[in-house]
Amino acid sequence: MQAFVLIQTEVGKALLVAEAISVLPGVLVAEDVLGPYDVVVRVEAADTTELPGVVQRIQRVPGITRTLTCQVAAH
What's the pTM value of the predicted model, to 2 decimals? Predict the structure, then answer.
C-alpha cells in the first residue's frame, strides 16, 4: 500500500527535510514544494500495519512541525 505524507517544516528547512527523508526505508520520493505544505512524500508499506512505522521514521526528522498522512485508495 502507498500513502502521501504532507509535511510542514520550520521556516527555511524544507529542502533539508526532503533530503533527509528521501533516504529513509519505505520512502519512494520526497519533494520540497510550494504551497500550504513544504514537503510531499510518497511512501510504501507492505500493509496498513507497517504504515505507522514508516510515518514515525519521517516524523523523527528534525525540522518537521506537522504531518498529514493520506492513504492512496486501492484500485
Answer: 0.93
Q: For residue 53, what is its C-alpha cell? A: 512505522
Q: Among 35, 28, 15, which residue's Cα sits nearest to residue 5?
A: 28
3-state SS track over the chain: CEEEEEEEECCCCHHHHHHHHHCCCCEEEEEECCCCCCEEEEEECCCCCCHHHHHHHHHCCCCEEEEEEEECCCC
21 neighbors 33 (Cβ within 8 angstroms): no
- pLDDT tens per residue across span 25-70: 999 999 999 999 999 999 999 988 999 999 999 999 999 999 999 9
